[in-house]
Amino acid sequence: MSTARVFAGLSGAVLLAAALPHAAQAQAAGAQAFSGPMGVAGRWAIDLPRSKFNTALTGPPPLSGELDVTIDDGKALAWTLVEEDESGVAALQFAHATLDGAPTKAVVNLNRVTISVERVGPSMVTVTTHGEAGSRHQSMKVTRTDPDTLLVEQDIDGRPGPPDQTLILTRVKGR
């Protein structure tokens, strides 16, 4: 499995990891500390037609992807992400990170990576993958645009500019 696919999986998982409510709320909050759940617990599916994949950096898009956020208590986030392609499981991620805490380990496919999750709004986080010296540094901003939609803007190549990839996730109802 390619490094690009590994990071694609991490970024997909990260999208699950966060949420930004409404810009007005974030502005009103100013520099205050944010607390409480972000409203992202539950199951989310990648909306493939509305997402914009960067195949040059991550390889072909998955056929499907599901994020399951199991902890959203205002102190930590925990999630599992599974992406599938025509061969089966294309990406698999498990993470449990303290908000605004020290970097922690996560599992992406069969690789251990270091991530940190910074709370930057009432329902918004920035997730950063920390590489070793000289390796790729990836980050993503996750915003809850409404109660049932997550917007994930990923910087995969570590260079300034617009997001390299934009993913839309929608809440899975029922079950």
Spell out the key features of this protein.
175 residues, 14% helix, 3 helices, mainly beta
Short description:
The chain is mainly beta and 175 residues long. The protein has helices spanning 3-16, 23-29, 55-58; strands at residues 42-46, 64-72, 76-85, 88-98, 104-108, 111-121, 124-130, 138-146, 149-155, 165-171.
Please report the number of helical segments: 3
- Spatial ordering of strands, largest sheet: 1-2-3-4-5-6-7-8-9-10
**Parts with pLDDT < 50 across at least 5 consecutive residues:** 6-31
Mean pLDDT, all residues: 80
- Give the proportion of residues in helices: 10-25%
Write up what this structure looks like:
With 175 residues, this protein is mainly beta. The protein contains 3 helices and 10 strands. It has helices at 3-16, 23-29, 55-58, and strands spanning 42-46, 64-72, 76-85, 88-98, 104-108, 111-121, 124-130, 138-146, 149-155, 165-171. A 10-stranded antiparallel beta barrel has the order 1-2-3-4-5-6-7-8-9-10. A hairpin with a 2-residue loop joins strand 3 and strand 4. The longest helix is centred in the first third of the chain and has 14 residues, at 3-16. It is globular. The model is unreliable at 6-31 (pLDDT under 50).
Explain the layout of strands and helices:
Layout: H1 3-16, H2 23-29, E1 42-46, H3 55-58, E2 64-72, E3 76-85, E4 88-98, E5 104-108, E6 111-121, E7 124-130, E8 138-146, E9 149-155, E10 165-171
Antiparallel strand pairs: 1-2, 1-10, 2-3, 3-4, 4-5, 5-6, 6-7, 7-8, 8-9, 9-10
